[in-house]
Write a structure and sequence with these properties.
By secondary structure, the protein is α+β, with helices and mostly antiparallel strands. It has one domain. Helix content is 27%, strand content 22%. The chain contains four helices and six strands, in the order H-H-E-E-E-E-E-H-H-E. It has a six-stranded mixed sheet, with no helix packed on it. The longest helix has 11 residues. The radius of gyration is 15 Å and the shape is globular. The termini are far apart. The relative contact order is 0.22. Bound molecules: zinc ion. The site of zinc ion (ZN) has 8 residues, from loops. Zinc ion binds next to loops.
């Protein structure tokens, strides 16, 4: 399913909330999670700055061979300082991603992108 009429973050969020309102309502901005590597134990703390879908697993960029698994939003994580944030791309970044069929599929299903917190100005 490739959606071409969606061109902005706002349109994408409207599409997601219109097509699956209850699902969309269940997402909470500000939730924190931890992803820990099964190989080197290196972890990142994430925060959701937009509503959306986050993956269960991420590849580890510390040891490069392990997999970081989701810690399922444990209460204990909520007081940690996030190192990374989940966000919904907008503008040119989103347009470029929607051109790619695989990425289009990810974002049209509510998927978010991840970036280090210090990249945010
Ligand atoms: Zn690792």
């Amino acid at each position: 399913m490739k959606i071409t009429k969606v061109q902005t973050k706002e349109q994408l969020e409207k599409y997601l909330s219109d097509t699956h309102p209850a699902w969309w309502e269940a997402f909470r901005v500000g939730r924190k999670n931890m992803y820990r590597c099964n190989n080197c134990s290196h972890f990142i703390v994430t925060i959701e700055v937009d509503r959306g879908v986050t993956p269960m697993m991420l590849s580890c960029d510390s040891c490069t061979i392990g997999t970081r698994r989701s810690g399922f939003y444990l209460d204990g994580y909520q007081k940690l300082t996030p190192t990374h944030e989940w966000y919904r791309p907008d503008g040119d970044e989103l347009l470029e991603l929607l051109e790619d069929p695989q990425a289009n599929d990810h974002y049209i299903r509510g998927g978010l992108s991840i970036r280090p917190v210090e990249d945010v100005s």
